[in-house]
Amino acid sequence: MNKERLYLYDTTLRDGAQTQGVQFSAKEKQQIAAVLDGLGLDYIEGGWPGANPTDTEFFANPPATRARFTAFGMTKRQGRSADNDDVLGAVLNAGTAAVCLVGKAHDFHVTTALGITLAENVDNIRTSFAHLARLGREALFDAEHFFDGYKANPAYACEVIHAAYAAGARWIVLCDTNGGTLPEDIARIVTEVIASGIPGDHLGIHTHNDTETAVAGSLAAVMAGARQVQGTLNGLGERCGNANLTTLIPTLLLKDPYASRFDIGVTPDALRGLRRASRLLDDMLNRVPSKQAAYVGASAFAHKSGLHASAIAKDPSTYEHIDPAAVGNMRIVPMSNQAGQSNLRARLAEAGITVAADDPALARIVERIKEREAQGYAYDTAQASFELLARAELGLLPNFFEVKRYRVTVERRRNKRNQMVSLSEAVVVTKVQGQKFLNVSESLGPDGSDRGPVNALARALAKDLGPYQAMIEDIELVDFKVRITGGGTEAVTRVIIDSEDGQGNRWSTVGVSANIVDASFDALIDAINWKLVRDGAQA
Amino acid sequence: MNKERLYLYDTTLRDGAQTQGVQFSAKEKQQIAAVLDGLGLDYIEGGWPGANPTDTEFFANPPATRARFTAFGMTKRQGRSADNDDVLGAVLNAGTAAVCLVGKAHDFHVTTALGITLAENVDNIRTSFAHLARLGREALFDAEHFFDGYKANPAYACEVIHAAYAAGARWIVLCDTNGGTLPEDIARIVTEVIASGIPGDHLGIHTHNDTETAVAGSLAAVMAGARQVQGTLNGLGERCGNANLTTLIPTLLLKDPYASRFDIGVTPDALRGLRRASRLLDDMLNRVPSKQAAYVGASAFAHKSGLHASAIAKDPSTYEHIDPAAVGNMRIVPMSNQAGQSNLRARLAEAGITVAADDPALARIVERIKEREAQGYAYDTAQASFELLARAELGLLPNFFEVKRYRVTVERRRNKRNQMVSLSEAVVVTKVQGQKFLNVSESLGPDGSDRGPVNALARALAKDLGPYQAMIEDIELVDFKVRITGGGTEAVTRVIIDSEDGQGNRWSTVGVSANIVDASFDALIDAINWKLVRDGAQA
User: Which end of chain B is more exposed for a tag (fewer CB within 10 A), N or C?
Assistant: First the structure.
C-alpha cells in the first residue's frame, strides 16, 4: 500500500529553550542535536542566529545532521528592505538549507503588538519570502497566532498565509501560539485552510499544551490534512510546553490509522532508543523524568492493581496498549498491599530470582511485605529493598556485615567571623568477618559546606568496610525522599534513598522509623547490601 | 439559553490510588475527599470496601460530602448468587447511595482472564445490576476494556452494556482501560453506542493517558454525547494516569463550545481554588508539582520570551488563553513584578495585613520571595512562613527571641537486654529579652520510644522561652514533609512542618538547608514566631 510522507520538525532547541528554568549552552545544543538526529527527525531547528550569543556560537559551528538543520528568525521589519534588515540578515548568514520565519496572522496583534497596518504586515511577509525564494532557501512561514487570528478574522489570517505561500514559502506552519485552541477547532480550521487553496502537503501544525491537548491537536491537524508536525522532545517549551514528540512519534509509528497511512523518518530501530533519548535530555537538563510520561515514563507499563497483574501474567496484551520494548521501555509489576503472589513471582523473575509457583516462601514473602507495609514501608519504588527482603526469606542473602552502633551529632553555632554555621559528624562501628571497624566522618559538600547527618552517616559507613570496600566505594547518594506515614502519635518516618554507582546503575531502598536518622540509616544499609549482592560478594 | 447538565465523577481515591508510589491512609482519604467536595464534583468514588484494610476503615466512617459518595467493586462472581457473593456483599454493606461495579466488555478478557463463557459473563452482569436495582441504589457499570472490546467484537461489547442498562444501571461508563484508544476512535464508538440505543445522558467516559490524549478523548466523548466524565485530580492513576480533572474542569467551564453548552457543578468561585486544590494533593502525597501542568502549573502563565513579555505588558490576552486568576494561578513575567503585586496584596489581606497599593514594600516582598524560592523555599502551603517574611519587610515582626546555638545527637546501640535502641538528645541555647536560656531535651514518644532529632529539638526549644512559655507550651508538631530540591551537587533539603495548638489551629512553616536538621530547625523557629505573632506577644 502506498503511504503518504509525514514530516517531523523538531523545535526543542528553539521553542524548547523557552521552558522556565532551561538554559542550553552551545555545547548542549550540539549534544541534543545528535540525539534528535539519531531518532530520525526531518528538521532540526537550532535557534535564532544573532538573537543571543549562544545561538550565534551554535550556528557558527553547526552540527552535521542528516536532518535539515534550520535557522529561525522573523520576517523583515517595517521600513527596511529584506536586503537591509540586519536581524533577517543574521539569520540568513547562518547559511542553513532551511529557514523558518515568524510573522503575525492575527489582526489584533498586528495593530496592538506591532503597531503597523494590516496591509504593511502582509507586504513585509510577502517581501521576506520572495527574498528567500531568490536565495534558493527552503522557506517555512511560522504563522503566529494563526488559530486565534482565524477565529477573529478568517479573511485576514488567510490573506497572510496565502501571501507567504504565493511568494514561495515551502511550508505554511499554522501555530496555536497561546495553546488555547481545542482539537476540534484545529481540525475544522485546517480543513478550511486546505479548502482555501493551500495543499495539505504544504501545511504544518505547531501546538502548545495549555489545555493538555497539544498531542491531540497535532493528530487532529494531520487527520484534517496537514503533513508537517512540529514539537519538542519531552514536551519542553514556553508555559505548559509544546506538542510532545516523545509521544507523537510512537503514536504515528505504532497506532492506526496513522501507522498504516503514513511514513515518517523514524525507523522501528530508532524508536527503541526513544526512552533513552528522553532520559538523556532530562539528565542533561538535570530535570526529574516524569514517571507518568506516555510511552517512556518509568510508570508507563507499571501494573499495580492485583487484578491487572494476574491478567498480565496470562497475556501482557490484557493491560498493555503496546509492547513496552518497542519504545525501549519495560514492564514493572510493583509489590504493594494490593498485589498477590502472581505479582510477586513476576517481580522476582525480573530480579533474576526464579521461584517455583508452589514454593511456600512465596506466601511468607507476601506476609512479610504486608506486615512491613503496615509499619510504613513502601516497596513500589524501593525495588532493591524488596529484593533483599525476598532474598532473606528465600535464604539467599549472605550476612555481609553487622552494625554494632553509631552516633551522629549536628551542631550549629557562631564561627570566628560571627556567622551561624553547622557541622555534622558521624561515628559508625561495624563488624565484618569477625573484625571491628570504627569509622568517623564529617559531612562536607563540594564547596566545604555541611550536608547534614545522613550524608555524614553514609560517608562513615562507606569509609572502610574491609574486604568489601572496593565494591562500595563508588556508591553515591543521589536522591532522598522523606515522608511521614501513619499520622498522629504513631507517626513514623519513611525514607527512600536512591543510590548510584560508577557504572550508572541506580537503585532505591527504603527505611522506616520514628527517628528520621534511623530510617535513613536502614535505607543506607540496604543500599550497600544490594550492591554487594549484585556484585556477587561473598560473606 | 438552556444548558445541558454534564456530571463529573472523581476517582482519585480509587483509580488514583493505583499510581505507582502512592499509598493513601484512611485519614488522607478523608482530607482529599474534603478538597474534592470543595471543588463541587458530582460523584466521589472512595475505594473498594472490603478489598483492603484502608478502604474498609475509610468506608466505616465515610466523609460527609455534598457529592454522591460512591463505593467501587466488581459484579458478582461466577457460581454464586448476587446475594451470596461476599466480595459484592462487602461493597454493598458500605451503604453508599451510589455503587459502581466493574465488569468485562471485551470477549478476549472474558475467556482469557476470567475463564468463563461469554454468556456467563453477560448473565453475571445482568444479575448484579438487577440486585442493585432491587436495593434501590444508584448503579454505575464500569465497562472495562470497552473500546478495545468494541473494536474486536462490537456485537458482544454492546450486548454486555445493554444487559447492564436494561437491568437498571443508571450509568454505563465506557472505559478505555489500557489507554490506547485515540480521540477520533472514542468519538466514533460513543456515537455508535448512542445509536445502538443507550442515551448519551446515561453514558460516562473513563480514559487513561497512555497516549497523552486522555483529556482530548474525554472531550471527544462529550462532543459525541456522553454526559458523565470520570477522572482524577492531577491526573493520578495507574501507569500514565487517568484523565486529568484539574485540566478538564477549567476547559469545560471556560472554553467553548463546552462553556456555552454545559452546566457542571463547579462554580467560578470554586474554580479559583483549583490551583490550591492541586497543590494540596501534591503536598499531601509529597509529590513535586508539575511546573508545566495546564492551567495550574507554576509555569502555566510564565512568559519567558522577551517578545511575549513586552506584548503581555500591552495586553495580557496577546499571549494568554485565559485569565490566570480564574484558576487561582498567576502570571510570571521576568523583569516585571507588576503582575505579582495584586496577588500579593490579596494574600496579605487574607492574613489580616492591609497594605496600600503604592507601598514600596510590596516590590521588596515579591523580590524576597523570588530570591528565597530560587534557594528552594516554597510558600504555596507554608502560609505562616510567608506571613512572617512579609511582616519582616513591612516592619511588623518583633524580634521575640534569638537562638545562640544548638546541638543534637542521635545514638543507636544495644541496651542491657541486647536490643538495638536509639536515643536523641538536643541542647538549645536561646536569649530572650536579655536573658539566656539553656535547655536540654530527649525525644520520647508516648510509648517511651525515641522520636528522633527534630522532635528533640522542638522539645528543647519549647521547654523554657521565659515570658513566652505559656503561649507556646501547647504547640505540637503534627506533620513533617521533606523534599530534596535543586538536584545534583547543589541539592538542598526543604522541610515543611505543620504545627497545631490546643485550640486546633494549624499552620505550616518552611525551612531550607543542605542539612535536614538545620532546615527543620528553621521551620520550627518560624512555627513558634507565627504563634507568638498570632497571640499578640510583645517583644
Answer: N
